[in-house]
Amino acid sequence: MLLSKMEDESLKYKAFFYLMAYSGLRRGEMLGLEWKDIDFINNIICVKRTSNQTADRGIYTDTTKTKRSQRTLKISPYIMELLRQLKAEQESKALKLGNYWVETDRLFTKWNGEPQHPNTTYKWLRLFCKKHDLPFYGLHSFRHFAASSLISAGLDVTTVSGALGHCNSGTTLNVYSHMFQTAQARVSNAMDGAFKFLKKKEDV
């Protein structure tokens, strides 16, 4: 419901939250994405860095949380088309601003091309939820949405762990154990249905 209400929002935020929900990327990973990481031909995104902020350092580029966080993800053609539009929009802004534009190659930037502040999307989402009378769960809820979708689709823990960039499968199990248990319960119910013929034999 929340994502559907973003359909008419600005391209920058629509692309950000659609991609975040689809990929399960962390906020820092999203903000660290650069255009050189995007393969528009094969619909692939490579996660190579993060963008963070502290009071003493300001906004800075850092390595990913773990080595396994550096990963390659296949992305929906629809979302890749949004990124194409975002790139074109960004290039148009850069042309208009001329020397005022700071070239960083980042997907998500401030008005002048500098890396976007980590709190910008958080504040935007909070106002968006208030505007549409929706509960506000923060940015991490999009990562949980992606994880839930993968698990519900029946993917194994190793595959889900790799997609989320966890350091190992144990982390994924610890964080999403209840989701795996729910998915396994559905499998069990489905198998019970498939073996109904056994009960019929017992009743004979």
Word description of this protein:
There is one protein chain. By secondary structure, this protein is mainly alpha-helical. It is built from eight helices and five strands; from the N terminus they run ααβββββαααααα. The protein has helices at 11-23, 27-32, 77-97, 119-131, 140-152, 157-164, 169-194, 196-203; strands at residues 38-39, 44-46, 50-54, 58-62, 72-74. The radius of gyration is 20 Å and the shape is globular. The model has no long low-confidence stretch (mean pLDDT 88).
Summarize the structure.
By secondary structure, this protein is mostly helical.
Q: What structural keywords apply?
A:
204 residues; mainly alpha; 53% helix; three-stranded antiparallel β-sheet
Query: In this structure, how is the largest beta sheet organized?
Result: 3 strands, antiparallel
Given the structure, what is the number of helices? Answer: 8
Q: Rough shape?
A: globular
Strand portion: 5-15%
Rounded Rg: 20 Å
Main β-sheet, spatial strand arrangement:
1-2-5
Report the structural category: mainly alpha
Order of helices and strands: HHEEEEEHHHHHH
> What is the strand tally?
5
Pick out the low-confidence regions. none
Assembly type of the chains comes to single chain
Distance between the termini: 49 Å
Binned, the helix content reads 40-55%
Average pLDDT reading: 88
Layout of strands and helices, then pairs:
Blueprint: H1 11-23, H2 27-32, E1 38-39, E2 44-46, E3 50-54, E4 58-62, E5 72-74, H3 77-97, H4 119-131, H5 140-152, H6 157-164, H7 169-194, H8 196-203
Antiparallel strand pairs: 1-2, 2-5, 3-4
Helix pairs in contact: 1-3, 1-5, 5-7, 6-7
